[in-house]
Amino acid sequence: MLLEQLRNQVLTANLELVRRGLVLHTFGNVSGISRAEKLVAIKPSGVAYEAMRAEYLVVTDLEGKIVEGTLRPSSDLATHLVLYRAFPAIGGIAHTHSEYATAWGQARKPIPCFGTTHADYFHGPVPVTENLSAEEIATDYEKNTGEVIVRAFAGRDAMSVPAVLVANHGPFAWGVDAAAAAHHAEMLEAVARMAWLTVSIEKDAAAISKHLHNKHFHRKHGPSATYGQIETYDAKKKDR
């Protein structure tokens, strides 16, 4: 993927967070990766979204060395890089402090799957990480944030549940590219709000049945998906 194309995709995804009301001021960031070039484009730190242009995005290698750009990258870059290294299928990552998803993270509670809207996007509860230790916070905080996310997905498929709540921090979402990551961030906020409303109405609400959960997830994802128009699963994988 050409760097110009990657930058434009990542810029569009960052601005989508603003359009969807998922970020305030300069909070949040989206990155995207070119796996062929092993390069990552990410939002610069502290730059207002309304002022952002494609050339302002910072391009780094997978070790965080700046390849192109004159601005400092997002302070969350190290977290993104850990996830890219750990999960090869990820092509884009979005981090927000969206209100309802962040509230679940601050409560240190996973988001249960109460209904089919959640099941359409997340094949299981959205997990919450363990707390970082004092040492992890004091040393390589952003990198250790990525590591604690990776630990939360031990034994899980990160592409089947493309989001996580970092305890007392906020959500990260991802997908096959930057646009998918931003979309999953939006859907995460929607299901977080619905889950909050559900437990406000019935504090002992039960999770969706496994059968209904599987039905809704698999009709949208995987080789036997039936949702949407004709486009083979193999073609989608090639486009990544």
Strand and helix layout:
Layout lengths: L2 H17 L9 E6 L4 E4 L15 E4 L4 E3 L8 H10 L5 E4 L3 H8 L9 H6 L12 H5 L2 H12 L10 E4 L3 E6 L2 H24 L8 H9 L14 H7 L1
Antiparallel strand pairs: 1-2, 1-5, 2-3, 3-4, 5-7, 6-7
Helix pairs in contact: 1-7, 2-6, 3-7
3D structure, described in words:
- This protein has 240 residues and is of the alpha+beta class.
- The protein has one domain (3-239): L-fuculose-1-phosphate Aldolase (3-Layer(aba) Sandwich), CATH 3.40.225.10.
- It is built from nine helices and seven strands, in the order αββββαβααααββααα.
- A seven-stranded antiparallel β-sheet has the order 4-3-2-1-5-7-6, with helices on both faces.
- A hairpin with a 4-residue loop joins strand 1 and strand 2 (39-42).
- Helix 2 (77-86) packs parallel to helix 6 (141-152) and helix 3 packs across helix 7 (178-201).
- The chain is globular.
Quick rundown:
With about 240 residues, the protein is an alpha+beta fold. It has nine helices and seven strands. Residues about 235-240 have low confidence and may be disordered.
Structure keywords:
9 helices, seven-stranded antiparallel sheet, alpha+beta, L-fuculose-1-phosphate Aldolase, disordered C terminus, 240 residues, globular, 7 strands, single chain
Classify the beta-strand content into a percent band. Answer: 5-15%
Mean pLDDT: 93
Helix percent reads 40-55%
Instruction: Characterize the overall form.
Output: globular
- Total domain count: 1
Please describe the biggest sheet, giving its number of strands, its sense, and whether it closes into a barrel.
7 strands, antiparallel
Number of helices: 9
CATH class group:
Alpha Beta
Strand order of the largest sheet: 4-3-2-1-5-7-6
CATH superfamily: Class II aldolase/adducin N-terminal domain
Please name the CATH architecture.
3-Layer(aba) Sandwich
Rounded to the nearest angstrom, the radius of gyration is 17 Å
CATH topology: L-fuculose-1-phosphate Aldolase
- Main structural class: alpha+beta
User: In whole angstroms, how far apart are the ends?
Assistant: 10 Å
- How many strand segments? 7
- Report low-confidence residues grouped into runs of 5 or more: 233-240
The topology string of helices and strands comes to HEEEEHEHHHHEEHHH
